[in-house]
Write a structure and sequence with these properties.
alpha+beta, four-stranded antiparallel beta sheet, globular, binds ligand DP6, 24% strand
Length: 361
């Protein structure tokens, strides 16, 4: 099995003068959440997510060889300079440098864009870092054409993790596990792996409509958020629970039991927020409309027998999850009832997708 030491590049022959690559990488939504980490972007507990299809980042690299011995880059967002993003990208390059020393012999022009509206409150770090990692791996592959596909995608996930933990789950589809877990063969703290069992057909094209309740800047950055789990009074119980929930959801994803799916997924979302409410300092990231939506989902479910449920990220937006066969009814419910609780009635329709893919080379 591949591990950290295998990911250190030994390339010394920089036989690429110029190259261009372009990758599209999706966002993902965690079912069992990553919240808390150790040094070097190692998660405190394993997590599992649906890879999304429509919410994605498209990033182009134009690369030119240099003799600097130091990487340099220019960052464009939708074709225009975006100095605010430089720090994150620079940090990504610094973190991957020890595994990709060849980057120091290139200048990178990076042009990136998201398919979802800017400042929609949807975190673009997962899709954004995954797209950077894919482009870096295209360069590594150009320098070392013998590389296997398996290595290409594993190292891409490894590098994406260094940029943002959840990004390592945005390389492959349609369900990805990140973090060592006893019942997931070949699972690793260092990269995401595809869910190893056959996914029950109930989850085929599973729908995720993202209700944009609050489009502002994140109130708590993920770095601050993960730090709150250090010395958190319930940390150990939470990390143990994540292992148990991952075992339980593995069975559910195999047998298609949607009632059990709902219990695990909604409990995970509320636990994530409970962790924030019980940390020091404490935060409430839900808004009144988040709670209103949750209550309306619960009452719709009890009235209709629908299997619709919700999950949350570290913010006020609500991901509404439902089987493809309920698309018509739940879409009507969202249009008629839930959209009123979104900023400007805005929401994004998405579904489970296949992972990153290359657009041009
Ligand atoms: C609540 O991956 O954004 O979305 O590793 O610090 O970049 P960093 O954190 P990030 O954390 C995401 C946390 C979450 C849950 C999840 O996606 O599992």
């Amino acid at each position: 099995m591949l591990s950290e030491k295998d990911f250190t590049s030994t390339i010394t022959d920089y036989n690429v003068e110029k190259a261009s690559f372009q990758w599209s990488s999706p966002s993902n939504i965690a079912l069992v959440k990553y919240w808390g980490k150790k040094d070097n972007q190692i998660p405190a507990n394993p997590s599992i997510s649906f890879t999304l299809n429509n919410c994605k980042t498209i990033t182009k690299f134009d690369i030119q060889q240099t003799n600097d011995g130091n990487f340099t880059f220019e960052l464009l967002f939708e074709g225009k300079p975006k100095p605010e993003f430089n720090k994150k990208v620079n940090q990504f390059f610094l973190r991957i440098e020890q595994y990709c020393s060849y980057i120091n012999y290139f200048h990178f022009v990076i042009d990136t864009q998201n398919t979802f509206p800017h400042s929609s409150g949807i975190a673009s770090s997962a899709s954004g870092m995954a797209a950077l990692a894919m482009n870096i791996m295209s360069l590594e592959k150009a320098l070392n054409p013998d590389m296997t596909d398996e290595f290409f995608y594993k190292k891409a996930s490894f590098l994406a993790r260094l940029g943002s933990g959840s990004a390592c789950r945005s390389i492959k589809g349609n369900v990805v596990v990140w973090g060592k877990h006893d019942e997931i063969a070949n699972s690793s703290d260092e990269f995401g792996v595809e869910f190893p069992s056959q996914l029950h057909e109930n989850f085929k094209n599973y729908q995720d409509t993202i209700l944009l309740v609050d489009k502002g800047e994140k109130q708590v950055s993920s770095t601050v958020g993960h730090d709150l789990m250090h010395n958190h009074p319930f940390a150990k119980q939470r990390f143990d629970q994540a292992h148990e929930n991952l075992s339980a959801i593995k069975t559910v994803l195999e047998n298609g039991n949607l009632d059990e799916f709902i219990k695990i997924v909604e409990s995970e979302a509320l636990t994530l927020h409970a962790m924030m409410m019980t940390s020091m300092p404490y935060f409430i990231l839900m808004k009144p409309n988040t709670l209103e939506i949750i209550n309306r989902i619960w009452s719709f479910r009890s009235k209709t027998g629908s299997k619709v449920c919700f999950t949350l990220d570290a913010g006020a937006n609500v991901h509404v999850l439902f089987p493809e066969r309920e698309k018509e009814e739940v879409s009507k419910f969202i249009d008629n009832e839930l959209s009123a609780y979104c900023k400007n009635n805005e929401f994004i329709k998405d579904q489970v997708g296949l992972g990153a893919f290359q657009l041009t080379s």
